[in-house]
């Protein structure tokens, strides 16, 4: 690995100041993705500003029933938190479906959101990748693209966002708090990640010197009945081919509230607004669930290796909603 | 920098450490503890699993600068003198070791599992060991060893 400077930040103000003044500096959280990418030579920071000592580790109930999660809460701890497990079970399940125990023990909430794609062409210096080297081309498009995007991709990039946690947060209307030398701002999670378009190397709306300090979940009663279903090539320790985060409330056979998001299908966690529109106020039946899935996936396009994901996403949406309906939690 | 860290219950320190080197490097090359193994260096294989402040982590992904004044327990710290931990004993008895490279990481991961869940069922064992790759055994003997260790601890 190339040498780099290391600074352990004593407080948030110092962390954001150092990153805004040192050229080519990056924040270091749990390191489960950044250190890996540095070993591969894909990330090449000159300075790492370690933020793991900052006091951003609380999980607090907000007035009004929401929850505020410090950006340095480790994934394992968030998954096990009683408040999260009872009010937002989809988030706990999504976290536990990701990575391995060792990685969940160190990976942070903030780092999880800004982790990079696991597209093998992004990692491989012998391949063309517009994310790694803007303008170089994309070898995934004509290559092995079984794991790649079917929604929101462009002719410049078909990589997917790998996070499970972010898919649950997308369904839950989470808001992300960002800090920089210019102050604090709040961004809805759905606006945090960008679709690739012509600039796939620009993955989020964060500026290089902005630090994620917290994620807030709104009071959301429908989330008490929520699930995360992840379809992958082996039962554990694999990224999603397709995943679905869903929350559903049904009264007298009619959908009165619903949240739906997809993972493994796009460069960002994909909120299924089109499907939600079909579902809300409609009868909670398999036929309606299928119609909702079809509405969301109407814009999906596949490549030779990944067209199967469209049908897989359709079935996974329906199965997840059916599960919520039949286990009684949605009533 | 000088790194001060408690390792297996003992206060240890190392001088002239680059903050960016890994905890794994500090343990193996500076403190003479070669139990945790250096394999993928990417957090994928689990061969370098150690306890950091009592939770298992991949030592290859932790920077030396991040362990200042913290507590590390390695596979070397599991046995009580010459008496092996029940997990280690079970790995020997069940024949769960072939080339041995993944063994220290698996022993720590299994040790942690049994602390949290003294009689795990098979899906729980599989999930707990998902972050530890073994290219020799096919895992069956490792599962046997964890079941055996659970029985020994319960006895």
Radius of gyration of chain A: 20 Å
**CATH homologous superfamily heading of the domain at 222-326 in chain A:** CO dehydrogenase flavoprotein, C-terminal domain
CATH arch. level architecture of the largest domain in chain B: Roll
**Main beta sheet strand tally, sense and closure of chain A:** 5 strands, antiparallel
Q: How do the strands of the widest beta sheet of chain B line up side by side? A: 2-1-5-3-4
Q: Helix segment count of chain A?
A: 13
Mean pLDDT of chain B: 96
Strand fraction of chain A: 15-25%
Structural class of chain B: alpha+beta
The strands making up the biggest β-sheet of chain A line up spatially as 4-5-8-6-7
Round the mean pLDDT of chain A to the nearest integer and report it. 97
Q: What general form of chain B does the structure show? A: globular
SS elements, strand count of chain A: 12
CATH fold category name of the domain at 222-326 in chain A: Enolase-like, domain 1
Level of helix content of chain B? 25-40%
**Count of individual beta strands of chain B:** 5
Task: Lay out the secondary structure.
The complex is a heterodimer of chains A (331) and B (155).
Chain A: E1 5-8, H1 12-21, E2 25-28, H2 34-39, E3 47-50, E4 59-61, E5 67-70, H3 75-80, H4 82-87, H5 89-96, H6 101-106, H7 109-113, H8 120-123, H9 165-171, E6 175-180, E7 183-188, H10 189-192, E8 211-217, E9 226-231, E10 242-251, E11 254-263, E12 270-271, H11 273-279, H12 286-297, H13 308-326
Helix pairs in contact in A: 5-9, 11-12, 12-13
Chain B: E1 3-7, E2 10-14, H1 23-30, E3 49-52, E4 55-58, E5 71-73, H2 86-94, H3 103-116, H4 122-128, H5 140-154
Parallel strand pairs in B: 1-5
Antiparallel strand pairs in B: 1-2, 3-4, 3-5
Name a few traits of the molecule.
heterodimer, A: 331 residues, Uridine Diphospho-n-acetylenolpyruvylglucosamine Reductase, domain 2, Enolase-like, domain 1, five-stranded antiparallel beta sheet, four-stranded antiparallel beta sheet, 12 strands, 30% helix, B: 155 residues, alpha+beta, DNA polymerase, domain 1, 14% strand
């Amino acid at each position: 690995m190339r040498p780099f400077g290391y600074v352990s930040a004593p407080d948030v103000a110092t962390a954001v100041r150092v990153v805004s003044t040192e050229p080519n500096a990056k924040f270091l959280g749990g390191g489960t993705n950044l250190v890996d990418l540095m070993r591969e030579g894909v990330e090449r920071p000159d300075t790492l500003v370690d933020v793991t000592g900052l006091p951003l580790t609380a999980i607090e109930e907000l007035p009004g029933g929401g929850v505020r999660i410090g950006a340095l809460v480790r994934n394992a701890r968030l998954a096990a938190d009683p408040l999260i497990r009872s009010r937002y079970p989809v988030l706990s399940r999504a976290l536990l479906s990701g990575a391995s125990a060792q990685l969940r023990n160190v990976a942070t909430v903030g780092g999880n959101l800004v982790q990079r794609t696991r597209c093998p062409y992004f990692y491989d210096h012998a391949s063309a990748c517009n994310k790694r080297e803007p303008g170089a081309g994309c070898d995934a498009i004509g290559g092995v693209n079984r794991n790649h995007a079917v929604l929101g991709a462009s002719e410049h990039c078909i990589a997917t966002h790998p996070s499970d946690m972010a898919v649950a947060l997308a369904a839950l209307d989470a808001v992300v708090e960002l800090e920089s030398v210019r102050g604090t701002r709040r961004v809805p999670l759905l606006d945090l990640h960008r679709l690739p378009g012509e600039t796939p190397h620009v993955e989020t709306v964060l500026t290089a010197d902005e630090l994620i300090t917290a994620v807030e979940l709104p009071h959301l009663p429908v989330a008490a009945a929520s699930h995360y279903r992840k379809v992958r090539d082996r039962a554990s320790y694999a990224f999603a081919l397709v995943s679905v985060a869903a929350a559903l409330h049904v009264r007298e056979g009619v959908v009165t509230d619903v949240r739906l998001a997809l993972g493994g299908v796009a460069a960002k966690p994909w909120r299924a607004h089109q499907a939600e529109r079909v579902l809300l106020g409609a009868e909670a039946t398999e036929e309606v669930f299928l119609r909702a899935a079809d509405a969301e996936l109407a814009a999906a396009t596949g490549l030779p290796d990944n067209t199967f994901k469209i049908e897989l996403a359709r079935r996974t949406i329906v199965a997840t909603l059916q599960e919520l309906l039949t286990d009684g939690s949605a009533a | 920098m000088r790194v001060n860290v408690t390792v297996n219950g003992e206060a240890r320190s190392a001088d002239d450490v680059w903050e960016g080197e890994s905890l794994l490097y500090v343990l193996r090359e500076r403190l003479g503890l070669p139990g945790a193994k250096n394999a993928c260096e990417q957090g994928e294989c689990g061969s370098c699993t150690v306890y950091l402040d009592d939770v298992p982590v991949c030592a290859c992904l932790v920077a030396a600068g991040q362990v200042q004044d913290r507590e590390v327990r390695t596979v070397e710290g599991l046995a009580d003198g010459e008496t092996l931990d029940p997990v280690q004993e079970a790995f020997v008895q069940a024949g769960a070791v072939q080339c041995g490279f993944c063994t220290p990481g698996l022993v720590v991961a299994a040790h942690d599992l049994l602390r949290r869940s003294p009689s795990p069922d098979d899906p729980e064992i599989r999930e707990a060991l998902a972050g530890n790759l073994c290219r020799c055994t096919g895992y069956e003997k490792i599962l046997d060893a964890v079941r055996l260790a659970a029985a020994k601890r319960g006895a």
